[in-house]
């Protein structure tokens, strides 16, 4: 086992979260590795720091304030209670409608352009004349 | 543990007193967990209220798959993660650098064998220094150190709360301690 693994094991050893077998291996390693032994001492110090950190109390009348909030939550209109959910839904609905709107406008534009091209073809007088001339030439030869 | 289940069952039947008993029993753990992760007592109080508000509305969905404290810690930790992510977007800078005076104070206390500090003012200052060191750590390290060192939970409980494997708890805790050691490097002689 590498020193790195023994150091992870040292941390778990301080929390008494290693097996008897692991503990035996670790203690044997510490006898021969001063670096890992020093690391264990540092880890002990780090752990010790938290003992200095006492527990804090929440602000006064915690329960009273909480029950007041619960009571007010019951009083408020349903839309307000579910506002965070509504907020998310509104965003989704807006995205959905913008996509539909975008798709409809694109389709409309595409239809408009297609009809324009078709009508150009249908009402192009010059091409009609050319077509007629070509037809006459086919039946009666060039220049009638 | 049975007591929690009994209180919860009573509350589900409409007994408000049972809910109040649950709050009274667990408020310190919830508040201190939040305070240690978030680093602000005022906000921790507000978030602790939101946590119990959630317990009040979601008690019906609690299945006895885990213990009540595990479920409560999970709600608490998730709420803290949400808060820290919100803060990331707001860019709130917490002061995390130690001044010379703070370094000396911490060094003195750790040098005294028992780490005994009787003066209330000195204790308060030291708590602030340790909290400052915690605030400088990434979110994941703060959470795992809080659950282990402040709340004294087992690796199994931490793995259930954070939804990670036992092996990960072991490695993440080691890394968190390493990072904390890095922040408090002034306490250690140069290697």
State the main characteristics.
heterodimer; A: 144 residues; mainly alpha; 2 domains; 7 helices; B: 191 residues; Rna Polymerase Sigma Factor, Chain: A; Arc Repressor Mutant, subunit A; 9 helices; 0% strand; elongated
Protein described:
- The complex is a heterodimer of chains A (144) and B (191).
- Chain A is mostly helical and 144 residues long.
- Helices cover 82% and strands 0% of the residues of chain A.
- Chain A starts with a helix and ends with a helix.
- Chain B has helices spanning 2-12, 16-38, 41-58, 68-90, 100-111, 120-135, 139-150, 155-162, 166-183.
- The mean pLDDT of chain B is 86.
- The A-B interface holds A 7-8, 11-12, 15, 17, 38, 42-43, 45-59, 62-63, 65-67, 69-70, 73 and B 20, 23-24, 27-28, 31-32, 35-36, 41-42, 44-45, 48-49, 52-53, 56, 106, 109-110, 115, 117, 123, 126-127, 130-131, 133, 145, 148-150, 154-155, 170-171, 173-174, 177, 180-181, 184, 187-188, 191.
The coarse overall form of chain A would be elongated
Structure classification of chain A: mainly alpha
> Averaging pLDDT over every residue of chain B, what do you get?
86
Distance between the termini of chain B: 47 Å
Concise overview:
The complex is a heterodimer of chains A (144) and B (191). With 144 residues, chain A is mostly helical.
Q: How are the SSEs placed, and which strands pair?
A:
The complex is a heterodimer of chains A (144) and B (191).
Chain A: H1 3-14, H2 20-32, H3 34-52, H4 62-75, H5 78-81, H6 83-122, H7 125-140
Chain B: H1 2-12, H2 16-38, H3 41-58, H4 68-90, H5 100-111, H6 120-135, H7 139-150, H8 155-162, H9 166-183
Helix pairs in contact in B: 1-2, 2-3, 2-4, 2-7, 3-4, 4-8, 7-9, 8-9
